[in-house]
Design brief:
The protein has about 775 residues and is mainly β. The chain has five helices and 54 strands. Mean pLDDT is about 85; it is low at about 5-10, about 15-20, about 80-90 and about 250-260.
Length: about 775
């Protein structure tokens, strides 16, 4: 083929692809269905997001979604019968679990997340840094996400020079800092407008060239100017680096004196609220292996400052501290851990207790969790005199540590299931392996090392001499109360029907790492928790649930009504599910065609073949069918009842809110036998459903109006290929707001279904 032929073929292919693209309908949309959401948790924070006074956990899932979970508990009583004596011992057990309140798909990569509470507020807002080049301030009140502000500051993507990797907020809710991995830092001031709505000011720059940031936190210094601490180091510029390389090559050796040493620092950046300016206020050297920080409580509640975690050591740093006055403490080590291998602290958190008490938790890369206690000067509570680190327990390696006011510790594991623990005790005894800063200081003074080279002594080799040893055991101070299953990481997948007696194939996965690895079997369908089992006397024709509309139990299901060919079974729902008879006031000698709880606590309506029964606080009222006619089918909601008599007559009832009775409104002969109907649901803020769907034996479905003075007036109709067996009107919320979409779903006798839209105005 010549070059001309190749060019012609390429042009022809391009024209064909262009024509194919033009033939694609612009109404075609891509539908994304997730069979199972990602179970890995990248980060989590504790706060009060949806309602005041209720502590919740906000989780960042892999794939850009975040969820809000609430810690729920319930007391259950178990009675144990003793055959030797007649005493019954009642044991109360508390069941604790995490309940998901809301889930939001951000369609982005969430890089960082913090909660902030403005002054005078009772709930927390959420600040999210992502790969969008924006920072989002969100409100989750009532379980509904609302973006308050979303200012842009950089390009999209996870770039080292674009802020978003680190977030730090002022503990008093006045400002927050969002930082990039390199150089750039932006500070946003939070405030309120005249209406009380949160506002965000233009960003203030705190850039520093050739600086790599490892972590940032907000320092608690009361109501003074906000201060942000940054763990960072500055690498040399190109000229200094080349000069140093040339010097080393000229000497012909690799002596350490010719190598440039990069010193990590803890730097304080101060936001002057009066001048509206950010400056680098103070900096001090940090341990060469430092990688994470957590702030201590300040003002009248504590000494302020930060704890810096690194390899084998944790140190306390605050403005004014020098190399000679540093408070540094070694961490307890495992007995069989190699002495020449360091142990890195990966996560730390501080929890405030009552009476201005607090403690810190730190976890190592091996999973060991330590309690860090800070000792204060009795005469000056702002001065730290010492520190101790005690072994708490050994847990899975976590991506975060969240301590709640209820004495719970949530551990989103890096690998495997996520766990919720309850503290059995936090005041540890003397037998617990403990290291103190005094022991580390005594070892440093005995070594004779100069105070200018304090980090030259605190290395891995000396950590093995300073630290106490321990052997990992089972949980001693924590108790696991809940497990949130996770498939991350999935290292192997096999799909096949290996059970031998199931229709759908199963998915076999290998999950986890090390001793927490597992083989799991996934099956299609939704998981169901079986609460009670009741044998039925026959084959049921329909099942209904009746809600309790009383003020104290509104929205809770009260009855389960099971309809048979010639009878009705009523089950009461409480601590147990049990059958009730005449006390329910239901007509149990006939099948139930429809039933519902009426609004305003007006009772329960039951439709049976001979009439309509209204049950109100134990008393009943009956509407009987005219003549010898019978009710073929019916439908009811909280304020409307529609019935179809033999021969095609429709009768419409509506609840009178003043008298609490059902009033007969209209009777219309439709001219064909009715096979099914649905009156729909009453939307929030309305008193009635505006339409009803009626299916006929002549293979048609009609939409009739339920508006006042237009009752049962036909609005539209559609022809079907088979007789309709059931119909359902559903109101689906739209993504653009406004009125909901009305969807009509029709089930046909041939086993198929039809789904069509209904105009919410005209029907």
């Amino acid at each position: 083929m010549t070059s001309a032929d190749a060019a012609a073929a390429a042009a022809s292919s391009t024209d064909t692809n262009t024509k194919s693209a033009k033939n694609i309908s612009p109404d075609l949309k891509l539908l994304d269905l997730t069979l199972k959401n990602a179970s890995a948790i990248q980060d989590s924070i504790m706060g009060e997001f949806t309602a005041p006074g209720v502590q919740e956990i906000l989780l960042v899932r892999a794939g850009g979604a975040f969820e809000v979970h609430r810690i729920e508990s319930s007391d259950t009583s178990n009675s144990n019968n003793n055959d030797d004596n007649d005493d019954n011992s009642d044991e109360e057990e508390t069941r604790i679990w995490l309940k998901m309140i809301m889930r939001v798909e951000t369609r982005s990569v969430i890089r960082s997340m913090e909660n902030v509470r403005l002054g005078g507020e009772k709930r927390d807002l959420v600040i999210i840094g992502s790969d969008s080049g924006n920072v989002s301030v969100m409100d989750l009140e009532g379980g509904i996400s609302k973006v308050l502000h979303c200012p842009a500051f950089g390009k999209t993507g996870c770039r080292r020079g674009t802020p978003g990797q680190y977030l730090a907020r002022d503990p008093k809710g006045r400002a927050f800092m969002i930082s990039a991995i390199e150089k750039r830092k932006l500070v946003y001031v939070l405030n309120r407008d005249a209406t009380g709505r949160p506002t965000i000011a233009s960003p203030l720059e705190a850039h520093r060239s050739r600086t790599i940031v490892l972590d940032t936190v907000g320092v608690d210094n009361g109501y003074d100017n906000p201060i942000f601490a940054s763990l960072e180091y500055q690498y040399p510029d190109e000229e200094d680096f080349l000069d140093n390389m040339n010097m080393g090559m000229g000497m012909g050796n690799d002596n350490d004196s010719t190598k440039m040493k990069i010193q990590k620092e803890v730097a304080y950046y101060e936001l002057d609220l009066g001048l509206n300016h950010v400056s680098r206020r103070w900096a001090t050297p940090a341990h060469p292996s430092a990688c994470c920080m957590t702030p201590l409580h300040g003002g009248v509640e504590g000494p302020s400052g930060v704890l810096v975690g690194g390899e084998d050591y944790i140190e306390y740093v605050h403005e004014g501290s020098t190399s000679a006055s540093k408070i540094i403490c070694a961490i307890p080590r495992r007995e069989l851990h190699p002495p020449n291998k360091g142990i890195l602290i990966t996560k730390m958190t501080v929890h405030k207790q009552k009476k201005s008490k607090f403690f810190a938790l730190a976890q190592s890369e091996l999973g060991d969790v330590y309690k860090v206690s800070i000792f204060l000067d009795p005469n000056d509570k702002t001065q730290v005199t010492g520190m101790s680190i005690s072994l708490l327990d050994t847990l899975p390696v976590a991506n975060a540590l969240n301590v709640s006011k209820l004495g719970m510790l949530f551990v989103p594991a890096e690998f495997g299931d996520h766990l919720l623990y309850q503290f059995e005790r936090i005041d540890l005894g003397e037998d617990v392996p403990t290291c103190t800063s005094e022991q580390s200081l005594e070892g440093f003074k005995a070594s004779g090392v100069s105070s200018d080279d304090v980090y030259g002594y605190f290395n891995t080799a000396n950590a093995g001499k300073l630290a106490c040893k321990f052997v990992p055991t089972v949980l001693q101070n924590l108790r696991r109360v809940y497990t949130m299953e996770s498939l991350a990481p999935t290292t192997g997948v096999l799909v096949g029907e290996l059970a031998g007696n199931e229709v759908s194939p199963q998915i076999y996965t290998l999950n986890g790492r090390g001793p927490r690895s597992s083989l799991r079997i996934l099956r299609h369908g939704a998981a169901v928790t079986e609460l009670a089992v009741s044998d039925l006397p026959g084959v049921p024709g329909a099942v209904y649930t009746i809600r309790d509309n009383s003020q104290d139990k509104k929205g809770v299901d009260k009855y389960i009504v099971v309809s048979f060919a010639d009878a009705t079974l009523v089950l009461s729902i409480g601590d147990t599910v049990e059958e009730v008879g005449k006390e329910s006031a239901f007509l149990t000698q006939a099948p139930t065609l429809a039933c519902a709880a009426l609004a305003n606590d007006c009772g329960i309506v039951q439709v049976h073949p001979a009439g309509v029964r209204l049950i109100t606080k134990g008393t009943t009222k009956q509407w009987d069918c005219p003549g010898l006619k019978r009710i073929e089918c019916a439908s009811a909601n909280e304020s409307q009842v529609i019935i179809a008599l033999a021969g095609g007559a429709l009768i419409y009832f509506e609840l009178d809110p003043e008298s609490g009775n059902l009033a007969e409104k209209t009777t219309v002969d439709m001219g064909a036998d009715v096979s099914c109907l649905d009156v729909g649901t009453v939307q929030a803020g309305r008193s009635r459903s505006m339409f009803a769907a009626v299916g006929f034996r002549d293979q048609t479905v009609r939409i009739v109006s339920l508006e006042p003075k237009k009752n049962l007036v036909q609005r539209s109709s559609t022809a079907l290929r088979a007789r309709p067996h059931s119909v359902a009107l559903q109101y689906m919320p739209t993504t653009l707001g406004g009125s909901d979409d009305v969807i009509l779903t029709i089930g046909l006798d041939d086993g198929s279904s039809v789904r069509t839209g209904v105009d919410p105005i005209t029907g």
